[in-house]
Design brief:
The chain has 253 residues and is an alpha/beta fold. The protein is 33% helix and 21% strand. It folds into 2 domains: 167 residues, Rossmann fold; 68 residues, Trehalose-6-phosphate phosphatase related protein, domain 2 (Alpha-Beta Plaits, 2-Layer Sandwich), CATH 3.30.70. α1 crosses α7, α3 runs antiparallel to α4 and α5 packs parallel to α6.
């Protein structure tokens, strides 16, 4: 699919949900290396107001990490694949009720990663991300070993594949749940949702946006349900800049 993503509705009729890594931001070797440029922060700030506040970051990162990454900007957000929510930019972080990963299980996962030089574990409290970008040869062995310990010690958890990462998380929380929760409350309610994401963990968000009568776009690859594909995060950032230019305030400037 090569159609250029288009938005036909005025900004006051849409709600926008955007993933962070691989969508807004270029993929980094490690999560802590990711950076949001000043230009991106300016675009997100202006777009938040142009959309009347109906802009949310929907990420696998914790909301606390999202805030640090996009500081000083603070936006509505969902973290850890729907396990955390913050409906309003100035609101509190709400725990969605997904259980924390036990220390024992985290130690088992860390031991698996340690057998593959270059792989490492990011502990998010309610999820574990096992990164293998620096250990591409470990992709299949890691998946097999992680599946074995999940089946034996934590069958209530699910493994999702992302960009060079395996996310181990509660099966009961998804980015789709986050989109639906946002869409029930102002300023998101009553608008047409648009979701943008880059990997398998975003498919639930895509499905939710489509089920609610909206649109969805993927980045770098065609994901199930996506209406069109951005070639790269750079193209997403350029598109967001054009959306800001659609606002009445920008047109009067």
């Amino acid at each position: 699919m090569s159609e250029t993503p288009q938005v036909e509705l005025p900004l006051d009729e849409i709600s926008l949900f955007v993933d962070a890594d691989g969508t807004l931001l270029d993929i980094s070797l490690r999560p802590e290396y990711a950076q949001a440029s000043r230009a991106l922060l300016t675009v997100l700030h202006d777009l938040y107001y142009a959309l009347g506040g109906a802009l949310a970051i929907v990420s696998g990162r914790r909301i606390e990490d999202i805030d640090r990454l996009f500081a000083p900007l603070r936006l509505p957000a969902s973290g850890i694949h729907g396990a955390q929510m913050r409906i309003a930019a100035d609101g509190d972080i709400i725990d969605g009720g997904a259980p924390d990963i036990s220390a024992h299980f985290a130690s088992l996962v860390t031991a698996v990663a340690a057998r593959h030089p270059g792989a490492f574990v990011e502990d998010k409290g309610k999820a574990l991300a096992v990164h293998w970008r620096a250990a591409p040869q470990a992709e299949q062995p890691l998946r097999t070993e992680l599946a074995e310990i999940v089946e034996s010690f934590a069958p209530q958890l699910a493994i999702l594949s992302g960009h060079c990462v395996y996310e181990i998380k509660s099966a009961g929380a998804t980015k789709g749940d986050a989109v639906r929760a946002f869409m029930e409350l102002p300023p998101f309610a009553g608008r047409s949702p648009i979701f943008v994401g880059d990997d398998i963990t975003d498919i639930a968000g895509i499905a939710a946006a489509k089920a609610l009568g909206g649109r969805a776009f993927s980045v770098g690859q065609t994901l199930e349900g996506a209406d069109a594909v951005f070639a790269s995060p750079q193209d997403v950032r350029a598109w967001l800049g054009r959306l800001v230019g659609m606002s009445p305030e920008a047109k009067r400037a």
